[in-house]
Here is the input.
Amino acid sequence: MTELALGLELSGQRFIWVVKSPNETVKNANYFNVQGIEDPSSFLPHGFLERTKEVGLVVPSWAPQVQVLSHQSTGGFLTHCGWNSTLESIVHGVPLIAWPLYAEQRMNRVLLVDGLKVALGVKLNDKGIVESQDISKHVRGLIEGDEGKLLRSKMKEFEEAAKLALSQEGSSTKSLAEVAQVWKSLKT
Here is the structure.
C-alpha cells in the first residue's frame, strides 16, 4: 500500500483512491477487506493525505465505481482486473493499468495488455512488489504519454462497440431477448 501511495504522489496526477484495510484472516496481505477493523488511512505513509490533498481524494472502503468510471474527467483506472471492473471500464471507455492479484485476474491482464491493448501492465520486482517508481511511470504514461493516447483511442473503439451491442437493435439486446423467449417456451 505504501508503494502505491508513493507512486500516486510521485506521478503528480489527480486521483481518487479507494483504500481498504488489509484482511488479516488471509495469509497473503494483498487481499483487502471492506469491513476492516482499522481505519484504512492508518496504513498510508505518514503525511500522505496532507501532501496530496490538492490532487488526490482518498476514500475509505468503497466508492460508486460505475459513477466514477462514467465521469468525463476519469482518465484511467488502476485495477486488479476483475471481470466486472474490466467490463465497466470498457463500457465507459476508460483505459487501464492492470495489477492482477489472483485467479482469473492474471489471465484478464494478458487479454487487456497483450490482446486488446487497452491497458498498461505493472511489473513485480523480485520480492513480489510493484515499486512506486513503476506506478508513477504508468500513471503518468497513461494520463500524459503517447502510449496513453493510443490506449484511450483503442478503448474508445471498444466503448462504441459496447454501446452498439447494448442498443435496442444490438447483439446483446437481441441475445437476451432470445434467451427470454426460450425460457418462456419452457414454462408452457
Q: What stands out?
A: The first helix runs from residue 2 to 11.
